[in-house]
Specification:
Layout lengths: L2 H10 L1 H15 L8 E2 L2 E2 L1 E4 L2 E8 L4 E7 L3 H14 L5 H8 L8 H10 L2 H6 L2
Antiparallel strand pairs: 1-2, 3-4, 4-5
Length: about 130
């Protein structure tokens, strides 16, 4: 999705607008604690008026890269496209690939539901 389209989609989503405002408050008041920290690292930031998420893997302790936050419906559309383009790689591979490019609330669950409801995957799963 283009930068302008990402901004437009984020501005339509109430939760993302709330997170943007919290990031602005945090940035204007460096003493303010926020819900976007993990081990002292900020997980969300505004970049060119796009809300970004620091893609991490808490289970193995790695910190990835900044990716745009997508509203749920756009995330579903994007994950489905990626899943099909990658030739139906399963839940784990779909999720780990997608999280390198976007973030959405409940990203793993969304990925899991897409794969579990994929007719091609259901036909080929033993």
């Amino acid at each position: 999705m283009s930068e302008d389209k990402t901004k437009d989609e984020q501005n339509k989503d109430e939760q993302i607008k709330k997170w943007k405002n919290l990031c602005i408050e945090r940035d204007n008041n460096s003493d303010k604690e926020n819900e976007f920290k993990y081990n002292g690292i900020n997980l969300m930031k505004l970049e060119n008026n796009i809300l970004m998420y620091l893609s991490t893997d808490i289970k193995i302790g790695t910190i990835g890269k900044w990716v745009p936050i997508f509203p749920k419906e756009k995330a579903i559309e994007t994950i489905r496209l990626i899943h099909n383009t990658l030739c139906h790689p399963g839940i784990q591979k779909t999720y780990y690939f997608v999280k390198n490019f976007i973030w959405a609330k409940n990203l793993y669950s969304i990925s899991e539901n897409i794969v579990k409801s994929c007719s091609t995957c259901q036909l080929t799963t033993i």
